[in-house]
Design a protein that fits this description.
Strand order of the largest sheet: 17-16-18-19-23-24-15-25
Distance between the termini: 31 Å
Radius of gyration: 32 Å
Largest sheet: 8 strands, mixed
Shape: elongated
């Protein structure tokens, strides 16, 4: 399990230790963990923004000198060094969706993460769950000033915070915040520094000074507090040392060179007078006599902390001089009980997520690897509100073996998925038989390859329409049935139990060619070679995979409603559907539907509502928007698509391309052997420059109106969205009718595509 911690960790020592304590706790539980880098917050958090901006502007050779003048900057620089001991997310990636896509879950850490208005933090939407695409819960999170009268702010917080899986909060006030925003009861838990005080056990025992001293840790002390502290110092002959913030009434400012030395300042003190929350905690953990010198801002959380630890009598009261001594054996007994309860919450929340989620929903491609791998029948695929299938786990049947997560390609890196793909040969190809070339989507490469494979005694799996024009994967044994798999189908195919059937075929010695989207191929490969019943990896020797150059899969539900509307409008049944009719030519594709009353519907992509909504990226599966297979490095033996830049090859056999030309990328020796054996195909060496498409660099970006589209679809149905989204916008008309033709003539079409599809934010 991989967990990301979302918190602040380089603002001051309190933030550092609460963050690293949670990190160390998770690490001790055998969990892979890292901090979500703080840089995404730089434009949202007041003081952090100033620190980051200041640090960026200061030349390296001046940083040390300036740090001597500015204590807070010095602390910031030191903490940056200390944090390097821990793993962080890529600091080049600032988009929360991209950051959290790789985690099994995110834990929102402690400190004032749920704040409405606080100078150092401010309201941050991501802390309330916005754009966190994996399961997430909070641990010891606190909130400040959420009794705000700002109704807009409360509404924003309510909208996102309900995405949280569970709520662990640090104090009773924040329990009220959760209740206000969600109506749910939160669990109160210990601050991470109390849950796992690793820094106490492992710190350098060297004292900060040979003198006996009072330690101050806080930014502000009242005149009465100063007078009291001076009186204690005079009575016992103590020096007064300040830490974190210089104090004009102290004898010395301690300047620790590391987080470890910071803790030593507390360990060596005779008595502590902190005015901060974590300063109070560090005093308690070091078993020091202390009085908390609270102020208006920090008073509430310090008061609640000491009340929970039955130490309320250690809060400074003006005019009071006699305070009850602390029995730390009682404190430790209470902490032990609370640690057990807090740890139970943390482990329970993680366990529930493990049991309920196989991979983040936004990463799930619906490949069915988990469904087929489960030996207990605990997983079934169910449609969500958008019309896409996702795995649902039956907790009563699940044995928590973890195989579903292990086999899931969404949980694997491309380096693992493509580790055996050593080739990268690019070809332009087309069938020598005109009829096959015309009836295929591009040049007929798939049909020719699949037919040769069957002729050599193999079986072929691919996407076909059933009698209701639902796209399903089927098993084909002869060339006659192969026609069902011909031509592209721009809708997600239902795989059913195809993977299990492929496994049976391979186990009985049959050769199988499996075609599908790259995520389906990745799922099949993971299932066949992924320790399912200790499957012999040699099975894959008889498996050839062919993926299509996919621009994203639209909702099967929307497509079904589209066909219903088309049939209802004509009062007839549909006889055939062809997404890639070539009546206008190969590069001017059209939707063609024939009806049993003899009527035919043929519309080009810019006129058909389904195509407009598809290419407008309104209705693609979420995983398509950040597709990790969008690369020249493929996960299959052979990749097929349209060779749109084929004219750049200037080959004599490509003088006419109106009937279509296939792009073929050969990824393995196995794929190369099969491809070269297909004599029916004319093969011409290609290259990356001429075959370029934006999909080789990034997945198809979702429309900013995607969420709005599905909200309208759920509320009003297909007819409504077809009218609202099924027509070209003015921007789309300008791009298709003006920009695209002009950039083609100028020879900069590929550059224009990169700017629009790849590099635009």
């Amino acid at each position: 399990m991989k967990v990301g911690i979302l918190t602040v960790y380089s603002f001051n020592y309190g933030s550092y230790f609460q963050a690293t304590s949670l990190y160390k706790q998770l690490e001790s539980m055998g969990i892979e963990v890292e901090f979500i880098n703080e840089k995404f917050k730089r434009n949202k958090w007041g003081n952090l923004f100033l620190l980051y901006m200041f640090d960026d502007l200061v030349p390296g050779f001046l940083k040390g000198s300036i740090a001597k003048i500015l204590p807070q900057y010095r602390t910031y620089l030191q903490l940056k060094k200390d944090v390097k001991k821990f793993s962080e997310s890529d600091k080049r990636i600032l988009d929360m969706k991209r950051i959290t896509k790789k985690y099994d879950c995110v834990i929102l850490g402690a400190d004032e993460m749920w704040s409405a208005s606080m100078q150092s933090i401010r309201y941050t939407p991501e802390h309330f769950g916005k754009d966190i695409v994996c399961p997430h819960f909070s641990y010891a999170t606190s909130g400040v000033l959420f009794d705000t009268k700002n109704s807009d702010l409360v509404a924003k917080a309510k909208k996102d915070i309900n995405s949280y899986y569970d709520f662990g909060v640090r104090d009773t006030y924040t329990k009220g915040v959760v209740k206000l925003l969600t109506g749910k009861e939160a669990t109160q838990v210990l601050d991470p520094t109390l849950l796992n005080p690793y820094f106490i056990k492992n710190h350098d025992t060297k004292k900060a000074s040979s003198e006996e001293y009072i330690l101050l840790y806080g930014s502000e002390y009242s005149q009465a507090q100063k007078a009291y502290i001076k009186g204690v110092a005079k009575e016992h002959g103590y020096k007064i040392y300040s830490l974190g913030w210089p104090q004009e009434f102290s004898d010395k400012f301690l300047d620790p060179a590391s987080a470890d030395e910071f803790i030593s300042c507390f360990a060596g003190a005779s008595v502590c007078f902190p005015s901060t929350f974590h300063g109070t905690i560090f005093s308690i953990l070091n078993h020091k006599p202390f009085l908390s010198m609270t102020n208006e801002l920090r008073g509430r959380k310090v008061t609640m902390l000491l009340k929970d630890l039955e130490l309320s009598y250690r809060i400074y009261e003006e005019g009071k001089t006699d305070y009850k001594e602390i029995d730390y054996s009682e404190v430790e007994n209470l902490l032990a009980k609370k640690r057990k309860e807090s740890l139970a919450y943390l482990t329970g929340a993680l366990k529930k997520i493990e049991e309920d989620y196989i991979c983040p929903k936004s990463s799930c491609s619906g490949c069915t690897a988990c469904l087929n791998a489960c030996q207990f029948g605990a997983i079934k695929m169910e449609y969500d509100g958008e019309g896409f299938k996702h795995p649902i786990v039956d907790k009563d049947k699940c044995k928590n073996c973890g195989l579903c997560r292990k086999v899931c390609p969404a949980n694997k890196s491309m380096d693992v998925i493509c580790k055996d793909k050593t080739h990268d040969q690019i070809y332009a190809a087309f069938s020598r038989k005109n009829e096959d070339r015309v009836r295929s989507s591009s040049g007929g490469a798939f049909y020719a390859i699949a037919k040769k494979f069957i002729e050599d005694g193999g079986l072929v799996y691919g996407a076909a329409f059933d009698e209701k024009f639902k796209v399903r994967h089927i098993r084909v044994e002869n060339a006659k049935e192969l026609a069902k798999l011909r031509s592209s189908k721009y809708v997600q195919s239902d795989l059913g139990d195809s993977f299990a059937k492929v496994k049976v075929d391979l186990e009985t010695g049959k050769k199988v060619l499996f075609s599908g989207t790259p995520c389906q191929i990745a799922g099949l490969n993971a299932y066949i070679t992924g320790a399912v019943n200790k499957v012999n990896k040699k099975l894959s020797d008889n498996l050839v995979t062919v993926d299509i150059l996919c621009h994203g899969v639209p909702s099967p539900k929307v497509f079904a409603d589209y066909l219903k509307a088309m049939a209802a409008k004509r009062g007839a049944k549909i006889k055939s559907v062809n997404f890639r009719n070539k009546s206008y030519g190969w590069n001017k594709q059209a939707m063609a539907i024939s009806f049993d009353n003899g009527e035919k519907y043929i519309k080009r992509t810019e006129s058909d509502p389904y195509y407009i909504m598809y290419f407008g990226s309104y209705m693609l599966r979420q995983s398509c928007n950040e597709c990790k297979y969008a690369s020249y490095k493929r996960c299959s033996d052979i990749t097929l698509g349209d060779y749109w830049g084929v004219e750049k090859l200037k080959h004599k056999d490509l003088a006419s391309t109106k009937k279509g030309v296939s792009l073929v990328i050969v990824g393995t020796e196995k794929g190369e052997k099969l491809f070269k054996s297909v004599v029916e195909l004319k093969k011409i060496q290609g290259d990356k420059k001429s075959s370029y498409q934006p999909i080789f660099e990034r997945g198809t970006k979702a429309s900013p109106r995607r969420q709005e589209f599905f909200k309208d679809y759920a509320a009003h149905g297909y007819g409504y969205v077809a009218k609202k989204y099924g027509k070209l916008t003015l921007k789309q008309v300008v791009i298709k009718k003006i920009i695209a033709p002009v950039t083609r003539k100028l020879g900069i079409f590929d550059l224009a595509q990169k700017i629009f599809f790849v590099y635009k934010k």
